[in-house]
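From the methods appendix. Each design record in this collection lists the tokenized structure first, followed by the designed amino acid sequence. Records were kept in a plain field format so they could be parsed without special tools. The example shown here is representative of the layout used throughout.

RECORD:
FOLD TOKENS (123 positions):
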């Protein structure tokens, strides 16, 4: 199982970024994939999740309405489209997978992680 995140960078407040998570060894039929982030000095937070279960997507309250998670099964890539970015979105963003179809699984059940991509929102 391997995850490679990309798409991070420096963006001004109000700007947009699209993060990509290229994965191998994972099938969305059996796993759910979640984007997490860790801001400086803070714990890891789940941001958005996609699965084949119900709900098929879920979002943290901080992301709802601004972020959109999607998956391209053929390309084996999960995306996180982020709009109206705020300085408090600054963090390292990780994608991770857990066995199971529920986006409500606790963080400790996510066994497979990427190396992360830095997002910095600053003017």
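DESIGN:
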């Amino acid at each position: 199982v391997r995850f490679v995140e990309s798409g991070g960078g420096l963006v001004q407040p109000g700007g947009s970024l699209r993060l990509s998570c290229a994965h191998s060894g994972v099938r969305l039929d059996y796993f759910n994939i979640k984007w997490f982030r860790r801001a400086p000095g803070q714990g890891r937070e789940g941001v958005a999740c996609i699965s084949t279960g119900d709900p098929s997507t879920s979002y943290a309250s901080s992301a709802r309405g601004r972020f959109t998670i999607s998956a391209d099964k053929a390309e084996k890539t999960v995306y996180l489209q982020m709009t109206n970015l705020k300085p408090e979105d600054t963090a390292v963003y990780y994608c991770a997978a857990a066995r199971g179809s529920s986006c409500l699984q606790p963080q400790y059940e996510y066994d497979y992680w990427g190396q992360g991509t830095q997002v910095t929102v600053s003017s």
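APPENDIX NOTE: The chain is about 0% helix and 50% strand.
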